[in-house]
Amino acid sequence: MTLHAAVAAAATLMSMAFALSTFERWLRGHRRHEAAWTISLAMFAAGSASLWVGAAIGWSEWSFKAFYLFGAILNVPFLALGTIELLAGPKHGRRWTAIISLLGAFCVGLVVSAPLLGAINPDVLPQGKEVFDIGPRIAAAIGSGVAAMVIIGGALWSAWRLMPTRSANSSSENRSGLSPGRLALANLLIAAGTIILSAGGVLNSVVDEMNGFALSLVAGIAVIFIGFLLTNTDVTSDVRALRAPVPWRAPANRSGRDEAA
Question: Is the CATH code 2.40.40.10 the one for domain 3-234?
Fold first, then answer.
């Protein structure tokens, strides 16, 4: 197995493990942002698996279309949806869930039906401009670029809430049950992971293309998942429950004679 195939395999297994972890958290609390993140991580796993297949046995039309769809168009918007759900609440989250789902379905049809502009070299990761017309490329630019701006903007907004002039006038916890500091750190890590994923193009100038994308996937997904873990309120709730004082109760009488006495 080549290096880029091994790294792509690691990214696939890591994404699948993280997706199962967030899915388990969603089953416990049915929090909407965890459902969105589970879908996003499942798409990261699908994109990484496509990269793995292309690196291991050679690129074809459908392996690249799957990689382009799940790795360049759909995954980051659902990651951004989790940020919206976490910061803006279910009212805005439901609206954006419908919008992103409809646009995602449109992008699936767009990529699946897109004709190829030329033959695909099975030994080299194709570039979108060499394979697709303008439609899928615009979808990738909007899906990755705009969604990444939402994630980074959410992280900056969370950090802004920590400013002294803001924190003095705000409550210690928000609607998600997290302290502002923990929420800000979680979103900053998710934004940092998103930036790492977007830096795959920079890695292309240092290592070969498939290595660059695979390395950025592994590093970015790991940082994002650490941010996810910081949004878990279950551990915090358990610690508070253990620290809560137990109400004092008078011991019950052992018999009616004691009470009479």
Answer: no
